[in-house]
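Deliverable D5.2: sample structural annotation.
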Amino acid sequence: MSLAIVACMPLLMLCLIGWWIGRFYQLKFGDNPNSWLFLLGGVLGVVGMVLHAQGSVAVLSEILLFLAGLAVGGGAFLLWYILLGPRSE
């Protein structure tokens, strides 16, 4: 169980850093990069890892980890698109 918590720490740190960057950009420039996807991905990842470490239903933990990956990937893409994407100016 403690190894699953240690494995979740890099995921949580990256998700919080992505959320902070998106939140800063939203407050400074007014664009919405949907940084809540990082938090959703982090929570789903932690829940999936803990369920996997406890030996719960393997399919449920795999589905949660897959959804966490989609959320973090989607959040990273939207953050990149808002920060570096094409401008209409």
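Annotation notes: Helices lie at 2-29, 36-54, 58-84. The two ends are 51 Å apart (CA to CA).
The annotation will be released with the project's public dataset once the embargo ends.
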